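Students often ask why we bother encoding 3D structure as a string. The short answer is that it lets us treat folding as translation between two languages. Here is a chain of 152 residues written in the first language.
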Amino acid sequence: MKKKTMSYVMTGALSITILSGVPSSPAQAASPQLIKEQAAPAVTRSGTKSFAEVIADQAAALGIHIEGDDLETAAKKVRLAKLQKQADYYGIETENKEEKALRLQIKRAHEVDVHNMADYFGIETEGQRVKEIIASIADVNPEAAQQLNGFY
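And here it is in the second language, the structure alphabet:
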């Protein structure tokens, strides 16, 4: 009988403890979050660039004119120019191809290039991902791995 009474008392005490921690209205629930957000200091980073600056720098490096374009259009132009450059490197025809199909062809050509380089250096590729193979190539020849690492 004492065990049963004690379990009821403990269950009741635990219930009161749990219920007392829950706010009774949405306004009370929101107030601690607002206080945390207001008290948090602003985070500023020195030496970092905004996305727009990065896109502008990449466009200038690729020789693309993006003046007057919105950020999304400029980013798309830069992305397509990078794909075009990679396709030219691998000798892939880009005429009348969608971006996704072109990206897939470049990825496959890069994987073949990585496997050929691994075979040249005598590195086992069975069951390894492309990044793992490039890391193995880096152990043997860092310059070759750096050349392979720049794609997608």
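Translate back mentally: Residues 97-151 form one domain. Keep this in mind for the problem set.
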